[in-house]
Amino acid sequence: MNTTGVVAAAVVPAAGRGERLGPGAPKALRELGGAPLLVHAVRALARSRAIGLVVVAAPADGVAEVVGLLDSHGLAGKDVRVVAGGATRQESVRLGLAAVPAGTEVVLVHDAARPLVPVEVVDAVAAAVRAGAEAVVPAVPLADTVKRVEPRPAGEPEPVLDTPERAALRAVQTPQGFRYDVLVEVHAKALAEEAAGMAPAVTDDAGLVEHYGGRVVVVPGHEEAFKVTRPLDLVLAEAVLARRRASDGF
Ligand code: CTP
Ligand code: MG
Hints:
The chain is an alpha/beta fold. The chain is built from 7 helices and 12 strands. Cytidine-5'-triphosphate binds at residues 13-20, 27-28, 57, 85-89, 92, 111-113, 227, 229.
């Protein structure tokens, strides 16, 4: 397969409320070091020479605001498009993907909530798809031991069922990379199943590929590609950004 010169598109789901982060603006629009999380995430993608187009799935009532934010942060010159996202992450990705031109060969999906992903991770994911993988996820080993439990209401002790071997576990991040046709197909299948009331219970795009029998491979992720989910994550993100700015200054 000759994939020389193939440029990838990126879809950025950014339509979530950020409930776990607490009250305030939608998470993607919350500030980190003077710019919204989304702006950091789009910049990180635009920095990669592998990415030719970025499609942002914005909160449905915030499309014009997001267009304005991207413009005012100097991203107007890039090929960045904004569409209305949906009620779930999966729907937002599907709506973003619909704005990626058919004929694109490689698509990356990157959470707006992962503002500090290093460009090396973006490049490595795109390169692995170009090299022939149909689905690629960046991932890191776990620091904590993980136990599977029988969920119980809050306050009740939860019985432990078992402890998966930690060395074989990975925490997966984004951007996740896909062959365009594969990603379009699994999202179409998921939509059909959802309409039939049997939505597949997956939390990422690679999970959809797995669900329909596809093959997903892992490449090394990066600790700075963590997802801003809870208030403490925002504190960590500010610290990482301050460290980067300090070392850039020297
Ligand atoms: N997302 C989206 N559309 C939704 C829900 C989530 O585009 N309907 C996006 C978020 O904006 C985020 C990414 O998916 O960039 C990862 O989701 P998550 O971290 O769960 O973000 P939120 O859903 O915003 O946060 P929470 O679950 O705490 O409300
Ligand atoms: Mg969520």
